Structure prediction request, 478 residues.
Amino acid sequence: MRTMTKKYTKGVILLGVVLSIGFSSCQVVNKYKAPEIDSDALYRDVYNTDTTSIANIPWREYFTDPALQALIDEALNNNYDMLIVAERIKQAEAALGMARAAYFPNVALAGSVSHDRASAVDPLTKMPQAERKTLGYHSTTYSLGIAATWELDVWGKLNRQSRAKFADMLNSYAGRNLIQTSLISNIANTYYALLALDQQLAITNDMISLMEESVITMEALMEAGMQNGAAVEQIKATLYSAQVSIPDLDMNIRQLENSLCLMLGRKPGSIARTSLENQIVPTQLAYGVPFQMLAKRPDVRQAELSFRSAFELTNAAQASFYPTISLNTGSFIGYGSTTLSKFFRPENLAASIIGGLTQPIFARKQLITQLKVAKAEQQAALLTFEKTVLAAGKEVSDIMYTYESSLKKNGTRDKQVESLTNAVYFTKELLNAGEANYLEVINAQQSLLQARLNQVSDKLQQLQATSDLYRALGGGTE
Prediction:
């Protein structure tokens, strides 16, 4: 009997192998191919062949300020968006495991007891009621074994669904990279803005000290009869205008510190930092070729994976038109007997295999609709991908132009600040000599304050452009 069982088992295995080989040729053959990308001229007015790109630089080497590095490190470990996306990745991995589990049979340990009772006498027989034996016949059946259900993936429907889940899982990884590179850039931009506010506050305080000296000078000249009260009050008003900007700068500094704390996953508080003067703006940034950017940007990768998932689901919808071959509920192998004594004897072995072949007929309208929806989703995903590619090219082009345009202002801005510094000095000397009026002094001081503040804004714009370009090119995912 054991020999027969072994032969039977080998026969079943061989049959399964043959069926799997034969049915693999019946699957819906439509291999995935990534959408073609026309990356020529994706950067406006830029024709570069150098493949060197700042996106390949690890963020620790790109952002060299130790205080900024510490903040980025803290954010990557504690930022709530990063923690949330980590849980989303776990969900995607679990969904992929569940989709792959559909390849295998559902096997369960099944046991049952069936007890039946029936009348031992035909109730239609005419005999006295007292002589009838109601429920006189009874039987009990016990069973214990393995029950299984299984859908054979002949047409590749389950395979396509699994591939779609795999694309979704990769999409979640790309989503994490997108959040990470965006977080790094946001931390850097906020940090630079905080340093710029510190510098603007220091400049404003310096100018206030200079204006206070001018007020003292004007008051002395008025006592000497060389200026009038209107001039003194006018220059005092200028001083007050500068002083009243201090609380706004302090408020903006605190708000930026609180924003940074939120990104760091900590309670509001102060932020350790260096100074804007310690930040060096590079005079040239390597941006590589557009195809490199498209390969590294997480949002482009996400859009492509969404298309891939839709492509696989479309093929799964197509496979739904074909018959389903399955091992149905009720398939069982184990022991069955009417008594529990010597239950596990070989003669009590029992097996029941129920196969099914289901060809959709009346559900065809529903399947056609599902296929149309899947195709529409696939086309929408393709258009979203193409739009994402164009948006990426636009973003890089805008940032590069902003960066290069801002650099061009540096020389002229330096000359402006130098000239206005001299103008403030000369008008002050002329005022003491009685050869200049108070309006010239006020105009010179206000112009110098604004020029120095604009100089800080220029450097902030350039620093943030370097951070934005690093993110736009796909840097910061390492």
